[in-house]
Amino acid sequence: AKNVGILAMDIYFPPTCVRQEALEAHDGASKGKYTIGLGQDCMAFCTEVEDVISMSLTVVTSLLEKYKIDPKQIGRLEVGSETVIDKSKSIKTFLMQIFEKCGNTDIEGVDSTNACYGGTAALFNCVNWVESSSWDGRYGLVVCTDSAVYAEGPARPTGGAAAIAMLVGPDAPIAFESKLRGSHMSHVYDFYKPNLASEYPVVDGKLSQTCYLMALDSCYKYFCHKYEKLVGKQFSLSDAEYFVFHSPYNKLVQKSFSRLLFNDFLRNASSVDDIAKEKLGPFSTLTGDESYQSRDLEKASQQVSKPLYDAKVQPTTLIPKQVGNMYTASLYAAFVSLIHNKHSELAGKRVILFSYGSGLTATMFSLRLNEGQHPFSLSNIATVMNVAGKLKSRHEFPPEKFVATMKLMEHRYGAKDFVTSKDCSLLSPGTYYLTEVDSMYRRFYAKK
Ligand code: ACO
């Protein structure tokens, strides 16, 4: 199979959200901390009728219907998620309800978990399958689904929720350059979920920021090395049109891109312009560790990378800023934003993605885009996803109502023997919702 990659995509996020400006005031944080400091506008969250399973049922059904894919045509289904509902039974098995109905139970794949990286692991599994000798000619389907919630405190505004589905196959408009991948994996306690009775992570915020940037540097180094070996010339930011980052909050994405520019400067100063050379010069002798702590470097590199950021990154930031951190779906929601904003200009362009999952696992990889053919064309993908429509039809909850929802969800997490309000009035038609968890912890869903 040639040009294996993503043929079709769809995204779902809850219609319920809270404004960061309102949350900031409610939390007693200084004005601008969440909006300018973190760079976030809005945060989506699941109410008691939605969870990672309902969101993934919704997005998979929607993708199959909108692109007219016969469920029998799916040969592999992989889910990436870090939201634990069951320690044994995979989310994939819940999704099998859709396929069993059509008589298709011959579907490989289960769930992949490591913080925000599981979706990338799932995607690589599907791409590798289509490229392998065990491929049976059918499509792969990848689902990234997460509800990111934090305990009260500084991390709470960096939550979010969404599910994304991606159809994988040959001759894709979004093709993998499979040889161009750089990974960095190591053992760190930056963000983890050791308390199985709680949905909330244990997080060392500052450490997680540094780990993210260190992993980015390392992946970029390996990526550039492989590019040079393969292409025979040095890689620099000018060799890709867009850069897409895992987006816990927008400020970290800004810092990440400026860090790549600093890397370019260190490797080959002639690849950056004169102003950048002059402003970054004083920092060229810092050790790695010093460079992560230097506020002056952060400021200088953000300043000199601003025009490039506006061109190469800004178009990817819409959904992460509006919805928040969607964990496994976060990187792909940034990519969806790019398709939404630029679908008519992407043909022939290279796009670099950086996936990060705490703990930690990270990969930088490369996609090559072409217009594709209906229904698997960039323009049709943009139309089907209807990002503007979905953002516009949301309902803003006041912070008090958001906090009350979080409290209720704390009680519901891991609980049995309850029925939900079954109130689906805010959900759009076709959305799945949770109706009941019975005395055996079995979960029941209905479709609006
Ligand atoms: N106006 C403008 N900016 C402000 C204001 C204000 N009133 N107040 C603060 N800021 C700025 C700060 O200067 C800082 O920006 P800087 O880093 O450019 O200096 C930013 O807002 C955040 O303020 P901090 O004091 O650093 O925030 P705090 O430490 O309270 O929390 C954190 C931020 C650590 C990101 C927290 O939200 C968190 O732990 N989140 C979860 C972990 C996370 O997302 N990690 C990222 C990678 S791992 C993953 O994906 C889960």
Automatic annotation (TrEMBL):
Single GO term (MF): hydroxymethylglutaryl-CoA synthase activity
Pfam families linked to this entry: HMG_CoA_synt_C, HMG_CoA_synt_N
Residues that hold CoA according to the record: S208, K251, K255
Hydroxymethylglutaryl-coenzyme A synthase C-terminal domain sequence ranges: 174-448
Highest taxon in the source lineage: Eukaryota
Recorded metabolic or biological pathway in which this protein acts: Metabolic intermediate biosynthesis; (R)-mevalonate biosynthesis; (R)-mevalonate from acetyl-CoA: step 2/3
Enzyme Commission number, as recorded: 2.3.3.10
An individual GO BP term: farnesyl diphosphate biosynthetic process, mevalonate pathway
Residues annotated as the enzyme's active site: E82 (proton donor/acceptor), C116 (acyl-thioester intermediate), H246 (proton donor/acceptor)
Descriptive protein name: Hydroxymethylglutaryl-CoA synthase
Species classification: Eukaryota, Viridiplantae, Streptophyta, Embryophyta, Tracheophyta
